[in-house]
Design goal:
Structural class: alpha/beta
CATH superfamily of the largest domain: NAD(P)-binding Rossmann-like Domain
Distance between the termini: 6 Å
Number of domains: 2
Helix content: 25-40%
Largest sheet: 8 strands, mixed
Order of helices and strands: EHHEEEEEEHEHEHEHEEEEHEHHEHEHE
Shape: globular
CATH class of the largest domain: Alpha Beta
Oligomer: single chain
Length: 328
């Protein structure tokens, strides 16, 4: 009655190029802005005993006719055991019948769709002549953000800082080879964000790593790491100077980077300029001057997962990929 496609990480990889993920995420944001998306509240579970956290994101998108649920974890001691720090699984169901359609690895998909989100935001918020990127963090998302940005801008230089210098060195060597440009590991966060056009923060930090006085006019910031209560990468004072754009205001006010500036009274809710989808559909504007500071607060939304998973699902069907099982 109901055939379900099971897709491994390698199969997902072969069905989700970054260029297609960027298009899918842009369409997802537009659907959200048009009210054609319903999202459930994010469920966050802390697993302190094992230095882990689990998030459940779910919703449906009328444009795709799909319900999607993702269970994603971050277990930060896993690498010591040779395991990935982030693991995710995505389930797709038919919107009209609720019958299950696909179960797929969501680890790679999450990494790609989050990178794609940063590129979509930067396409309307960063200066068009942006060529230099400063990255805080040297993990998977630090890589994906820059790979996605390279689809939008002809990057010339990347600077990277990580608390573990060996990770910065490894990142620099890998990204230098993948992009064919200058990638420089640096010793401090200040060095990483100095004289760049776009700043990316992609860490699990619970304290500010980038300070207000380091931020010059004209910079765009992709704030990626804060996606749970208490998480923080930026000095809240930056919010007072920046044009703030969020993926979902409802989420960001609770789990995003702006949670701290709101709590401290540095900004009010009405100081948030727009949700990214409103800019993409022309309801609001993106960057207006060369000198303004723009900031994208990205908490990650189920609509992004569903959009990217739909790309994978449709291509997998076309290529007859994956294993088939009958659940019902």
């Amino acid at each position: 009655m109901s055939e379900v496609i099971i897709l491994s990480q390698e199969e997902v990889k072969s069905c989700l190029p970054m260029s297609e993920a960027i298009k899918a995420v842009a369409e997802a944001y537009k659907a959200f802005a048009k009210g054609r998306v319903e999202l459930a509240p994010v469920v966050h579970l802390s697993v302190e005993k094992y230095r882990g956290e689990v998030d459940v994101k779910s919703g449906y998108v009328e444009d795709f006719g799909l319900i999607g649920t993702k269970i994603a974890s971050g277990y930060y001691d896993n690498p010591k055991m040779g395991l990935p720090s982030g693991v995710a699984v995505i389930i797709l169901m038919d919107l009209k019948t609720s019958l299950p359609l696909a179960i797929m690895d969501g680890t790679y998909l999450t990494a790609v769709r989050t990178g794609a989100a940063g590129a979509v935001a930067a396409s309307v918020l960063a200066r068009k002549d942006s060529r230099r990127v400063g990255v805080i963090g040297a993990g998977t998302q630090a890589r994906m953000q820059v790979l996605a940005l390279s689809e939008i801008f002809p990057l010339k230089q990347v600077k990277v800082y990580n608390i573990h210098s060996a990770s910065s060195e490894k990142y620099a060597a890998e990204m230098r080879e993948r992009l064919g440009i200058e990638v420089e590991p640096v010793n401090t966060p200040k060095e990483a964000v100095s004289e760049v056009d776009i700043i990316v923060t992609a860490t699990p930090s619970n304290k500010a790593l980038v300070m207000d006085e380091w931020i010059p006019n004209g910079v765009h910031i992709n704030a990626i790491g804060a996606d749970a209560p208490g998480k923080q990468e930026l000095d809240p004072k930056i919010m007072k100077r920046a044009k703030i754009v969020v993926d979902s205001f409802k989420q960001c006010r609770v789990i995003g980077e702006i949670q701290h500036a709101l709590a401290q009274g540095l900004i009010k809710e009405e100081d948030v300029h727009a949700e990214i989808g409103d800019i993409l559909i022309g309801k609001n504007v993106g960057r207006e001057t060369e000198t303004e500071i723009t900031l994208f607060d990205s908490t990650g939304m189920a609509v992004q997962d569903i959009a990217a998973a739909n790309v994978v699902y449709q291509l997998a069907k076309k290529k007859n990929m994956g294993s088939r099982i009958k659940l019902l």
